[in-house]
Amino acid sequence: MYRKGGARLVCVTQREACRDDFETRMEAIASMRPARLILREKALPPADYRALAERVLTICSRYDVPLTLRYAPEEAPLPGCAVQLPFAAREHAPDTPFGVSIHALEEAAALRQSHAEYLVAGHIFETACKPGLTPRGLLFLQQVCAAAAQPVYAIGGITPERVPAVLAAGAAGYCVMNALMTCPDPRALIASYYEKEGVV
Fold this sequence. Notes:
Number of strands: 8
Strand content: 15-25%
Oligomer: single chain
Structural class: alpha/beta
Shape: globular
Largest sheet: 8 strands, parallel, barrel
């Protein structure tokens, strides 16, 4: 089973957490046709990141999954790829499609006139990726979705069981990182997310 249209799940990568071959895992994830894949990998040197991005783009292209790259002003985006910007870099958007990561209601409002294709808002629930930081919660997500002109994707602690509440808050979708990097079967995990969306 894979999502045939209107996908709501975004995969965010974290190679350090991957328990097996990273590119094999990317193939498994892309085969489920998520909404997009964000190749985060902030620690990789530019040349290594570029080479990895080219290989992952080949995988994504096989399944018609959009690939989004990290923001690095000195790195030229690959043709056909979007770029994920931090809010602080919103004025330096590249000449390519882009999304923006936000962490405050005011940031969503400030981006209403932006050419950003989507926003990633977080973190919504407690997550091991943000130890000790208080999650912003569903009310924050609901307020951001109401204030934003762009589709909003929630990030942070999104389990399959939390998907209905996230979508009910107005989110266009949700991002999953650590769970997709560490689970034994990414296809089965994605299927469980889709099931909670009401996808059969």
